[in-house]
Write a structure and sequence with these properties.
- This protein is mainly β.
- The chain has a single domain, classed as Beta Barrel (Porin), CATH 2.40.160.
- It has two helices and twelve strands.
- A twelve-stranded antiparallel beta barrel has the order 1-2-3-4-5-6-7-8-9-10-11-12.
- The protein starts with a helix and ends with a strand.
- The model is unreliable at about 1-5 and about 20-30 (pLDDT under 50).
Length: about 250
């Protein structure tokens, strides 16, 4: 596998490990409501940008189903107000497609009025469903930071960095996935999304040569959200000027 292909593989893992996620806020028992809770109550996808995670978490008791491109299926559960557990699977629809599954745990370590910091860990793997029995194990640990651009936290500027390791039949030990995202509310139920992500193979000393630019729009309500946009690899000609179309939909029970 070439270095460029390995870097793109690491970027693909980013989508799998952060696919499941949403956010909401429970009804407060006091008169004062935290800005982040108010924003989370209105946007089920507040804990991610386009595909990169943010430092926002789901409050206790929320359950969210997420679907990406009809192939990725995820469920997120709010354990407490600061901890959430997510599981994501890529269901094989043809014989040659591998089965991929991940579980991730995210917890806030600092929750200020505007600044939020969190840690996220993931563990999963991929296995061939064909004649070959090859498989790999993957895991990751990363730090997340989100800054509320507006006082009500309806717009977020976020950054993340995750070390991803591989085991089994993979020909690379691991790499670093990192990026920034901006979610900006432009209407009562509309937000604009912009994101730049990159992946670096540590053992090949390749840093930031390839990047993934994602952009689009989010339509959302208290229980339903949909992100529609494009993902464009930078430094690679894919034949699509705007990028590859991408869509996701989430539904939250609260």
């Amino acid at each position: 596998m070439t270095t460029g292909m390995r870097i793109h593989s690491l970027a693909a893992v980013l989508l799998l490990t952060t696919a499941a996620g949403a956010a909401r806020a429970d009804e407060p028992t006091t008169v004062s409501v935290a800005p982040a809770d108010t924003a989370a109550a209105g946007d089920p996808n507040l804990d991610r940008g386009f595909i990169l995670p943010t430092a926002m978490t789901q409050p206790a008791g929320s359950i969210t189903y997420n679907n990406y491109e009809l192939l990725l299926h995820g469920v997120s559960y709010g354990i407490t107000d600061r901890w959430q557990l997510s599981a994501t699977v890529l269901a094989p629809i043809v014989r040659e497609m591998p089965f991929v599954g991940f579980a991730s745990l995210k917890g806030q370590i600092y929750r200020g009025e505007r600044l939020h910091l969190a840690l996220q860990g993931s563990l999963g793997g991929a296995a061939s469903t064909g004649d070959s029995r090859d498989g790999i194990m993957m895991g990751g640990l990363g730090g997340l930071a989100s800054l509320c651009v507006r006082q009500d936290c309806s717009s977020l500027l976020s950054a993340s960095a995750t070390y991803q390791f591989f085991g089994g039949s993979s020909d690379t030990d691991g790499g670093l996935i990192y990026g920034v995202s901006l979610v900006h509310r432009v209407g009562r139920h509309v937000k604009l999304l912009g994101e730049l992500a990159s992946a670096s193979v540590i053992d090949a000393n390749e840093f930031g040569r390839d990047a993934l630019l994602s952009y689009g729009v989010r339509f959302y309500s208290g229980s339903l959200a949909s992100d529609i946009g494009f993902m464009k690899p930078l430094g690679t000609d894919i034949g699509f000027v705007m990028g590859i179309p991408f869509a996701s939909v989430s539904y939250r029970w609260q």
